[in-house]
Amino acid sequence: MRMLDEATLYTVTITPGPGMGTKTSVGKTVYAERKSVTRAEWLAMNTAGMKADIMLIVNADDYDNQTEALYDGTRYRIIRSYQTGARGYVELTCEVIA
Questions:
Q1: Which of 78, 4, 63, 65 is CA-nearest to residue 34?
Q2: For residue 55, what are the CA distances in angstroms to 13, 22, 23, 24, 33?
Q3: pTM of the predicted protein model
């Protein structure tokens, strides 16, 4: 698989405090490949009240349960991760953060 694009995966933590607390994001830039969301995946997410916009493929070693991603200038929430076969890749299904 040729992963020529870059994506930044973010671990987001919210520290309790006055008001809404403090949101902290720590990013890690990785190589990724964009795939279209399949019809079945889109339907399953839509039924669950989510909107699957894109799927990113990253190396399993690069993914550490991050919750957000930045790809091509757009910030996404990672709503599902799936380890594919023995090749060491993870598919990240993402929706745009409004």
A1: 4
A2: 23, 29, 25, 24, 8
A3: 0.86
Residue with tokens 């076969």: 85
Residue 16 main-chain phi, psi, to 5 deg:
-60, 145
Question: How far apart are the C-alpha atoms of 91 and 93, rounded to whole Å?
Answer: 6
- Cβ distance 36 to 55 under 8 Å? yes
Distance CA 98, CA 96 (A): 6
How far, in Å, CA of 92 to CA of 69, rounded?
A: 9
In this predicted structure, the answer to whether residue 86 has a pLDDT above a threshold of 70 is no
Q: Could you tell me the two tokens for 38? A: 């399949």
Q: Tell me, what amino acid is at 6?
A: E
**CA–CA distance, 75 with 47 (Å, rounded to integer):** 23
* Residue in this structure with the two tokens 């490949």, named with its chain if needed: 33
Between 74 and 40, name the one with better pLDDT.
Answer: 74
